[in-house]
Amino acid sequence: MIIKYAIPLLALAGVGFAVRTVLLAAQEPVSPPPLVEPARAPFEAYVAAAGIIESSSENIAIAALVPGVITEVQVAVGDVLRAGAPLFRIDVRDLEAQLAVERAAVEAAQARIARLEALPRVEDLRGAEAKLVESDAALTEAQQQWSLVEAIQDPRAMSREERTRRRSNVDVARARRDAAQAALDWQRSGAWAPDVAIARAELAQAQARAAAVETQIARATVRAPIAATVLQLNARAGEYAPTGIAARPLVLLGSTEALHVRVDIDENEAWRFQRGAKALAFLRGNRDFSAPLEMVRVEPYVVPKRSLTGESTERVDTRVLQVLYRFDPSAMTSYVGQQVDVFIEAPPVASK
Questions:
Q1: N or C: which end of the chain has fewer CB within 10 A?
Q2: Rounded distance, CA 317 to CA 227, Å?
Q3: Mean of the pLDDT values across residues 41-49?
Q4: pLDDT at 316 (0 to 100)
């Protein structure tokens, strides 16, 4: 008896479940409310664009001028720096050793100049004077010997060879005396001007080489080019710092006293943009945070879009006109690198 009625009841229950399922599927799905209310344009006609907040100096990616291992990092994220403040330092022990060699060369060149300028030495003068006195005595003796020969009346009293030898002795003694006099004059004249000029040129070369090494050592300490805030720090002591452009900058600086917004206007909307038109920025994530914008400049070259917002309708092959605006940081709590929604007042589009 129970089996007789159970099967029809189960069939009716299945039919009822199927009908209920069909009715529920036919109903319109209820869209969930947005987690965050999107910003609403304050203008009747407008150009909508996405923007990214950046520092008023534009973000400055700092790189090392001299490659090497970082020995010291002298800043932290958020530090407000003055122009020329040290950021980090590269190991320069090899350059310091080279500098010691170049400074020794400078000292040697200075010593050579000092030696030339100190001429003549008293000791050298005394030796030259003594040689002159000795040569004078030898000349006097040779002349006396020749005088004796000239006083002989009988030519047979002395051989021709002896007469020639004594005459030659006079000439040799006179030449030696002239050489001694010239040596004494040379000692008294001091250093020769061309020698001093060469020594000074060698000193200048040594000083230039030392200055070049000092410049390399100074470049090993990377400094802030302007007064700015440390936005990002990717330098660590012990890491190797290469030169050139890096995908991740060692230090990212920017002036945050005033902030800029770089707005990307779609090329299809660029023709509607007007210079000097009113513009308003809304912080992405909370439309209650907004700030009026003041145009700084328009970059006239239309570039491929790089700042992607993640929207499903966004195309990566879009080209955009970039417009730079400024705003007062006190008007809207925001950070460098944050995205904003920008609305720029534009003339209404005439309907066809």
A1: C
A2: 37
A3: 87
A4: 59
